[in-house]
Amino acid sequence: MGITNTANNSFFESVQRNFDKAAQFTRFDHGILAQIKACNSILRVKFPVKIGESIEVIEAYRVQHSHHKLPCKGGIRFSMEVDQEEVMALAALMTYKCAIVNVPFGGGKGGIKIDSRKYSDFELEKITRRYTSELCKKNFIGPGIDVPAPDYGTGAREMSWIVDTYSSLNPNNIDAQACVTGKPVSQGGVRGRTEATGLGVFFGVREACSFQEDMEKLELTTGIAGKRIIVQGLGNVGYHAAKYFQEAGAKLVGLIEYNGAIYDENGLDVDQVQAHRQATGGILNYPGAINFSDPAEGLEQPCDILIPAALESVIHKDNADRIQAKIIGEAANGPLTSEADVILNNKGILVIPDIYLNAGGVTVSYFEWLKNLSHVRYGRLEKRFEENMYNELIDIIESTTGKRVSDLERKTILRGPDEIDLVHSGLEDTMIGSYREIRDIYKNREGVEDLRTAAFICAIDKIGVAYEELGIFP
Ligand code: GLU
Description:
Helix content: 40-55%
Strand order of the largest sheet: 10-9-8-7-11-12-13
InterPro entries: Aminoacid_DH-like_N_sf, Glu/Leu/Phe/Val/Trp_DH, Glu/Leu/Phe/Val/Trp_DH_C, Glu/Leu/Phe/Val/Trp_DH_dimer, Glu_DH, NAD(P)-bd_dom_sf, NAD_bind_Glu_DH
Number of helices: 17
Organism: Sphingobacterium phlebotomi
Keywords: NAD, Nucleotide-binding, Oxidoreductase
CATH class of one domain: Alpha Beta
Structural class: alpha/beta
Largest sheet: 7 strands, mixed
CATH architecture of one domain: 3-Layer(aba) Sandwich
Shape: globular
Low-confidence stretches: 1-8
Distance between the termini: 53 Å
Strand content: 5-15%
Bound molecules: glutamic acid
Order of helices and strands: HHEEEEHEHEHHHEHEEHEHEEHEHHHHHH
GO molecular function: glutamate dehydrogenase (NAD+) activity; nucleotide binding
Pfam families: ELFV_dehydrog (PF00208), ELFV_dehydrog_N (PF02812)
């Protein structure tokens, strides 16, 4: 049982169809559009790894979808669903995602076809390091070439194995740390990367909910407070998104995992559910909540906002009609098939598309990459300077007004920015700015019927111009 991804071939076709639908609203000629759409380079490797007493042949991929800007950028996933079509689709989404949030990278994606639960930590380390050396051999990794990151089934630990393997194979490269992002802070990571995708999802949905005209159409009020939310997938992205929604006053009514779902109209606490999950091995039987042993049923429960935050194609032609949410925020990549997209749009549901909504991860990866290349922590140069400036400003205000600010007020005003403050505010600004760009296209370009098409148009416009200005090698 579980919510399964049934159609990888159609996932890639779905991405291509969405591209074609949007391309008709742009001014680029057929050749430029064909080049934007094409997957430039595909690496498939098979390599042996000693697992226990036997040798296992591992299948893995890295796809560089676009080279219009370098490096290529995108995560590496560990999953049994990995195949060439899936990685191609995901790499293509990365190209469009980066363009939408003005991150100057081409799209890439990697995948290793394994069920990570079946391996020990040491075996996973061997697989990850061997994969990295395969990427090195083929020139598919490097700070200016292709920069992986975490994705489904991977995290900071895997990234630290990658940076260590790459650095030991490239000992003279002073920028070696920039070969991968999503690293632990001690290995050159940036503060705020772990929660970045989930926080970006929150910022994006909050921005969408701030437009009165759009909310009235859905018979909702503006703002996040009081909205009923269901989150599917309690991995890094889903967990952090749920947490930020909860902190903003939303009511988390449903949570869905691969082996079951729970629902409580009075609201769930995500940290307590996590603790229950750790103690019992699953989210089912959480006190006061209704259980669904088939997780797919969890998607169909009443709510205002549904956040699919796991794998692709979980909402398809057979269940789309039963979705009760008024807004779907695509935290995962490709959670809706194109058939589901049509059904949901016809129902008047507002779908906030993946290529915009989950771009918080790659946005903060960009900040991490910049940090690695500049070899300095954000805020290191300006923090004390700003504190001193604010101090002087308060002194001047006090002496001209003859009034004193309290010690607490002084302390609050005086705080110069730390790395985490800068990363979070850079992410917030990006998510707000990009939503407005997409919404503008949606509202103002004749014939555009949904936000996804608007987001693709936004991406194609930027990449098309880049290709035009780049010129094509004769
Ligand atoms: N895997 C994430 C994504 O799909 C992050 C990619 C990155 O940070 O490069 O967007």
